[in-house]
Amino acid sequence: MSTNPPNLRPDLAPKARMSDPARPGQPTIGMVSLGCPKALVDSERILTRLRAEGYGISPDYAGANAVIVNTCGFLDSAKAESLAAIGEALQENGRVIVTGCLGAEPEYITGAHPSVLAVTGPHQYEQVLDAVHGAVPPSPDPFVDLLPASQVSLTPRHFSYLKISEGCNHKCKFCIIPDMRGRLQSRPAHAVLREAEKLVQSGVKELLVISQDTSAYGVDIKHATDRGHRAHITDLARDLGSLGAWVRLHYVYPYPHVRQLIPLMADGLILPYLDIPFQHAHPEVLRRMARPAAAAKTLDEIAAWRDICPDLTLRSTFIVGYPGETEEEFQTLLDWMDEAQLDRVGCFQYENVDGARSNALPDHVPQEMKQDRWDRFMAKAQSISEAKLAAKIGQRMEVIIDDIDAEAATCRTKSDAPEIDGNLFIDEGFEALVVGDIVTVEVEEAGEYDLWGRVLE
């Protein structure tokens, strides 16, 4: 049992969980999945295709004939983490195929690790399969392996990420995701619904909707209606809410039409949870970032959302130390936090990223000042979180059980996304609980980021 640290990065995917035993003689592939939940979905798709071709999935280096490393290239620190993971896989296994966002820069990878077998870019599934075939030829058992494959899940069985689009049309100066993953490409709504239905039928209790820009879903295909389903986030949310699972929305830009989602939350159709990357609050910083949404009206929007749905949980991420950020601009952000009273907050210190336009901006903030501002920002966020959680003592709420060990059952409320938000712990009378169950608890104790409660009969 562990509590959430205050500096938990909001861009990290849950740890991949693989436990399929291989049959004798079956070729096996390992997977190291780095980066955000969107990359985890890509890893799941690659492994699903490989399993359909007769490959086994190894949970460790020793049992794998080759290892795929799905990389992240969002920040320089993430690039360094990806290079380190590739190096570890080479040392432990020796036969490594690289894919993912950092794969968009193959010379960067091969310059550091020339012995990798192949490098492919993000969501290049066919190229990854070709590389695996070349390194480890398939050897399927026609009586076992060539049946229709169920989807490989790298998350616990009771929740799953549901990617509704790829790419992004924004041109934020600090971000190179559009360069790596391309412009917005929305999936047809009926295809998303079909995947969601299969997940719920397989036992998934919570669907986590992800993309680069969830609010923009369907814009590129002009919100086309196909087979009775319209490609618009409001319609999609309503359709997903009819499946009976928890539906949680991530990466939602605060466009005006987002207000149409809030009544669905107030009615209990989808979770009262919005993950909105505000990034900053001062208009000049947002202008230098080239952000697509104006901050001036965000406080009014938040107030309007809460009027419709008082139980709404708001999560966001911010960048401190952006080039040119003055003390006055940073103080505006702290003051905005006091007014906005966001429930869940993550924060980055600005980093240069190769290819980002923000690198060329003047007046970069010294590292020690970035650290000081990060410390002050997180202290503010922590105090808000602590007060909000203390107000929940005595409330009754539904929680979903993620894990059970000898000390407690680790659960999440409707206000908590996996791995990035808080937990609710049940440390008495939890012996009969089952992972994946949704139970009602009464909150008895609160900390800075987590709750403790007891199960109600």
| Outline | globular
Radius of gyration: 22 Å
Spatial sequence of strands, sheet with the most strands: 2-1-3-4-5
Main CATH class of the largest domain: Alpha Beta
> How would you classify the helix and strand content by structural class?
alpha/beta
Poorly predicted ranges:
4-14, 143-148
Number of domains: 3
What does the oligomeric state look like here? single chain
Helix content, binned percent: 25-40%
Q: Write down the CATH topology of the largest domain.
A: pyruvate-formate lyase- activating enzyme
Which architecture of the largest domain would the CATH scheme give at its second level? Alpha-Beta Horseshoe
**Percent of sequence in beta strands:** 15-25%
* CATH level-four homologous superfamily name of the largest domain: tm_1862 like domain
Average pLDDT: 89
Largest sheet composition: 5 strands, parallel
Continuous helix count: 12
Beta strands, count: 20
Briefly, what is this?
One of its GO terms (cellular component) is ribosome. The chain has twelve helices and 20 strands. With 457 residues, it is of the alpha/beta class.
Question: Helices, strands, pairings?
Answer:
Elements: E1 28-33, H1 37-52, E2 56-58, E3 66-71, H2 76-92, E4 96-100, H3 106-112, E5 118-119, H4 125-135, E6 159-163, E7 165-166, H5 177-181, E8 185-186, H6 189-201, E9 206-210, E10 225-226, E11 229-230, H7 233-241, E12 246-249, H8 262-266, E13 273-275, H9 283-289, H10 298-308, E14 313-320, H11 327-340, E15 344-349, H12 367-390, E16 396-404, E17 409-413, E18 424-426, E19 438-446, E20 451-455
Region (Disordered): 1-28
Pfam families: Radical_SAM (PF04055), TRAM_2 (PF18693), UPF0004 (PF00919)
Domain TRAM: 390-457
